[in-house]
Amino acid sequence: MGDQYLWASFLKGDPQAYENMYSQYYQNLYSYGVRKTNHPDLVRDCIQDLFVHLWTNRANLRQTDNVKYYLLASLRNFLVKASMQNDKRQGVSLDADMPFTMDFDPEMILLLKEKEGQRSKMIVEALEQLTDRQKEAIYLRYFEELSYDEVAELMNISVKGAYKLVYRALEVLKLALNMPKNDILLLLMACRLDFFTSLKHFLNQH
């Protein structure tokens, strides 16, 4: 079922489309959320709240060309609102200066090593040499496969700024890995497949 058809069916009140959308994008939402704020329980709660909100307000929603981007942007808004409410009580915060982590849960690292250890280890270690904003731009562009326009909107920067962040990040990775750009892009694509396969396994166990 294509994204636009899935979304259109959901807007019409199809419960199966709603469940399919939740299952299809939960991994992406959880992965992005825990990199924006290191509070997994808060992320899970916000994902649940987001989908309740979507179902309750589906009559007022519009068609979208990119369901994943729409959900990621919506989750970010829910995280911001939740962090503002919980900031004083729990010390949770979410803002543009908050570190964006590319760290993996220890169990996730083990799964990655078991699958394609050396390849994933190389890129993960190289990514740690990037600035937080560069990490986020690379993650959104190559792990979530968003367009530069979508990366810019989600990071609240200009499209030119998004291009610049990704370009500089790739230059750092070229030096760290001693590889040409095309090989790095292939490595990022391969690591993405390893990561989301392992993430699915990890979430199924928790």
TrEMBL record:
MF terms (GO), sorted A to Z: DNA binding; sigma factor activity
> RNA polymerase sigma-70 region domain spans which residues?
21-81
Q: So which residues are the signal peptide here?
A: none
Alphabetically sorted, this entry's keywords are: Sigma factor, Transcription, Transcription regulation
Q: Name one Pfam family in it.
A: Sigma70_r4_2
Q: Which Gene3D superfamilies match?
A: 1.10.1740.10, Winged helix-like DNA-binding domain superfamily/Winged helix DNA-binding domain
A biological process term (GO) from this entry: DNA-templated transcription initiation
RNA polymerase sigma factor 70 region 4 type domain location, by residue? Answer: 122-171
Q: Which InterPro entries match?
A: RNA_pol_sigma-70-like, RNA_pol_sigma-70_dom, RNA_pol_sigma70_r2, RNA_pol_sigma70_r4_t2, RNA_pol_sigma_r2, RNA_pol_sigma_r3/r4-like, WH-like_DNA-bd_sf
CDD domains assigned to the protein according to its UniProt record, in alphabetical order: Sigma70_r4 (cd06171)
The UniProt family comment states: Belongs to the sigma-70 factor family. ECF subfamily.
Entry protein name: RNA polymerase sigma factor (Sigma-70 family)
Annotated organism of origin = Mucilaginibacter auburnensis
Lineage, uppermost ranks:
Bacteria, Pseudomonadati, Bacteroidota, Sphingobacteriia, Sphingobacteriales
